[in-house]
Every structure is written in C-alpha cells, then in structure tokens.
C-alpha cells in the first residue's frame, strides 16, 4: 500500500519500524523515534486494518448526451479553424475528410463503450 492511500492516524510498518501517519508526507515513529518523511515510492504494510479504512471513490459517471454535445461543439470549432487556416482547396478537402474520419472513430468508440 502507498502512503497517500493511508488515512491520517493509520498505523503502518516501514523498513522494520512501526509508524503513525501524522500528515500528508510525514509519519511519527511509535517508539518515540521522531518524525520521518515517507517517500511516495515506499511500499508500506498497513496495521490494524488500515487498508480497509481508505474510502473508495465511486466510479465517475458521465452523461453520454453531454459528452456527445461537447464533442460536436469541439469538432465544429476544429472544422471552422481548419477552413480559416487552409487556403489550398484540395488540401482543405483532404484535411476535412481526415477530420470527419476521426470524428467517426470517436463516435464509434463512444458507442462501443456504452454497449460494452
């Protein structure tokens, strides 16, 4: 378990010593040995069931219609900018075709995520 996953006050073992989390990056040794910064990479052994004390975030839910509307607004803005930036008609058509294909792939992926 990583240090940032522990709640304040949680007991854990690190490098053979028992500590209590007292801050976002600090722990106090239970044997009175003072405080210590715990590195992010440290793998800790939670004690006293501290692992279960970490609240899990619920899965984030997005409104499909809102995502689609935001994407369509983004796509329209990209198309306008493309039209303004491209003076070569043939190149502009090729770029618009590529943009339309990318839009189709995005919408297809969104549909697969909804159904999958």
Task: Explain how this protein is built.
It is built from three helices and five strands. With about 120 residues, the protein is of the alpha+beta class. It has two domains: about 5-55; about 65-115. A five-stranded antiparallel sheet has the order 4-3-2-1-5, with no helix packed on it. Helix 2 (about 65-85) packs antiparallel against helix 3. The longest helix has 27 residues, at about 90-115. The chain is elongated and about 75 Å long. The two termini are about 30 Å apart.
Q: Kindly provide the radius of gyration, computed on alpha-carbon positions and rounded to a whole number of angstroms.
A: 26 Å
The number of helices is 3
User: Main beta sheet, described?
Assistant: 5 strands, antiparallel
Tell me, rounded to a whole number, the average pLDDT: 87
Domain module tally: 2
Helix content: 40-55%
The number of strands is 5
- Main sheet strand line-up: 4-3-2-1-5
> What is the string of SSEs from the N terminus onward?
EEEEEHHH
What are the low-pLDDT stretches, counting only 5+ consecutive residues below 50?
none
What percentage of the residues does DSSP assign to strands (E)?
A: 15-25%
> Structural class of the secondary structure composition?
alpha+beta
Shape: elongated
| Termini gap | 31 Å
